[in-house]
Amino acid sequence: MPDTDEPASFGEQHELAELFTRLGRELFTQRRLDDVLLVITRRAVEVVPNAEHAAVSRTKKDGGFETVASTSDLPPRVDAIQYRLKGGPCVDAALDDAVYRLDELSIDRRWPEFGRRAAEQENIHSMLSVRLFLEDDDLIAGLNLYSSKSHAFGSPDQTNATLLATHGALAVEAARHRDKVGNLERALATSRQIGMAMGILMATHKVTEEQAFGLLRIASQSTHRKVADLAAGVVESGTLELPPLPQKTRS
């Protein structure tokens, strides 16, 4: 069994510090959440060399979990076992805000059924799972590391994985904030265009504000186009094509 708890030498510590510096710069240049998660998993096997595979588990809208940004097709298969069993290190680390280190899955007493299946079916014998601490509770996620060797991870690996999860969580929050700001800016721009279009229709057709919006909705239903797109066209052209009114029948 390797001595995985041996402290890193000065040279190794310096190299690790440089790696985390580069990682921080790389993470905060990513604009999309999925890209941030991909960087986290790819760098995890560098920060924790004893890890053969890495992935992130995160909550879905239906309340379950999914595996994303995996470095190979193995983590999703391993994680699927615990998702079916509704328990395991990946899930519980994220839910419990804890770090779970499994030295030998086949005999681990915390998740015996998951451990036995993961060892027998996928030849995974060690795991290390760390929660990504996010301020917004609508997304819960955890970083997971996998190895085919027993006792693959030691205390230094756990420390490095926790540091990586901390860096990653900050980058995830930044990406989500940028996404929210971008959505808000788009919503405000759309709202302004709809307001301008309604003003044009009110002046052109001598109608009220409510009636002007009604005209946009009627045109939207008849043309199967979004109100926002029609509003942009009104602002550009000053006109709105309306469907022909139904002819009155004579009695």
Which terms summarize this structure?
elongated, alpha+beta, 251 residues
Shape: elongated
Secondary structure tally, helices? 8
Classification by helices and strands: alpha+beta
Q: Could you state the order of secondary-structure elements as H and E? A: HHEEHHEHEEHHH
Placed side by side, the strands forming the largest sheet appear as 2-1-5-4-3
Distance between the termini: 96 Å
Main beta sheet strand tally, sense and closure = 5 strands, antiparallel
Which percent range fits the helix content? 55-70%
Question: Count of DSSP E strands?
Answer: 5
Residue share in β-strands: 5-15%
Sequence stretches where pLDDT stays below 50 over 5 or more residues:
none
* Mean pLDDT metric: 83
Cα-based radius of gyration, to the nearest Å: 27 Å
Q: How would you describe this structure to a colleague?
A:
Helix content is 56%, strand content 12%. It is of the alpha+beta class and 251 residues long. A five-stranded antiparallel β-sheet has the order 2-1-5-4-3, with helices on both faces. The chain is elongated and about 80 Å long. The relative contact order is 0.12. The mean pLDDT is 83.
Please outline the helices and strands:
Layout: H1 10-27, H2 33-47, E1 53-59, E2 65-68, H3 74-85, H4 89-96, E3 99-102, H5 112-122, E4 126-132, E5 141-147, H6 155-205, H7 209-223, H8 227-237
Antiparallel strand pairs: 1-2, 1-5, 3-4, 4-5
Q: In brief, what are we looking at here?
A:
With 251 residues, this protein is of the alpha+beta class.
